[in-house]
Structure formats: structure tokens, C-alpha cells
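User: C-alpha cells for this complex, please. No commentary.
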Amino acid sequence: TQLLEQSPQFLSIQEGENLTVYCNSSSVFSSLQWYRQEPGEGPVLLVTVVTGGEVKKLKRLTFQFGDARKDSSLHITAAQPGDTGLYLCAGEWTSGTYKYIFGTGTRLKVLA
Amino acid sequence: SQTIHQWPATLVQPVGSPLSLECTVEGTSNPNLYWYRQAAGRGLQLLFYSVGIGQISSEVPQNLSASRPQDRQFILSSKKLLLSDSGFYLCAWSEVGVREKLFFGSGTQLSVL
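Assistant:
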């Protein structure tokens, strides 16, 4: 059972386009994190959202946590080839356990 | 500063052979430690995590095991590898009391033939 579903699974866009990646669950999470992973490397943390409805911006990336804390989105404005990678959401399955589960992943390719 | 070391980077093993992957963390004490497995281009599957020496939580029934012989050392093992054990194995750590941040090693690409 996959507890964190991401969509789309794959995304190929032209440089300069905008895109949104979604992370959905039927469960409530105390927080959600977004990571980006390059081929052959470990994921690197981009941001953590904690409060329902919270919006965080990281340059051209905008992250939002759903009001009910069951979902999150990542929006990229004016995508660049350097944004290419695997985007993963993650959350602590039960608060206080330190057990982190990951989403199914979205592979993004930005064409120059 | 804290660093995490994971080795080897790549490994090719025959079916039925044993496995030992090692992960060590430097620059912190009593970290939470994790082993994940990743299929090509997909999400991470949590295999084991540990909140202290000798405390191992197993998430997926399989022929793998984990041990934490020292505070900052986490080992993933198998007595007999299966074809289905192939994948990208990632070790990670988090700081106790500091949630929502996982730091990953560079991974081990395991091919079982």
C-alpha cells in the first residue's frame, strides 16, 4: 500500500514552461518534505512544510501544504534544464516515531 | 559538520551470495539511522530504521537484516541474495529532536545476477 501518491509520474516540458507536481495521501501528516534526487545520488532536502495551508517559496519553486495536511504541491515557474531530476515528497508516518515514508516520485525532464 | 559515508558505490553479486553494506555518520551523536531501497526512477521504500544502538525496526518482510553495532554505524546484511534484492540502497540519518530533515548517503547500486 502506497501511502503517498505523487502525480504525474513523468513530466517532460520545454524550458520556460510552468508545472505543478502533487503529493496526496488519505492520512494526515504532521509535516511533509520535498526532496530532489539526481541520478546515482541520494535525495537532497528542498523544503519542509509544517502548518496546514502553509506556502513556502524557494526561488522559482513554490511549495504548499494542504489545509487538512493530507496533501502538498510543488509548483515550478519558468522551468530550466537544471530543474531536471526526480522529485520526492516524504512525511513522518506517525508523529514521534521518526519513521519517514516517501512518495512514488515524479521524474521531471526540462528540455532546452 | 556532519557527514555520512556509504560504501561500496556499486556491487555485483551472484544469487545466493551474502551481502554487507555499511554506513557511518560523523559529526553527530545518537542519530536516527535508515536504510531505504529504490527501484529505478521510483520512490524510496523504507527497509529498516533505528533510533538507538540495538534498536532496529523492520518495515518489510524480506531476507535482509540490519544491525547497529555502534552509535553511528548501520549495516545492511543478507545471508543469501535473491534476484529481487537488486536495487539502489540508500542510507540516511536524522538528528534526534530535529524532525523533518533526512540526510542521505550517495547510495549503493546492487545488481544481483
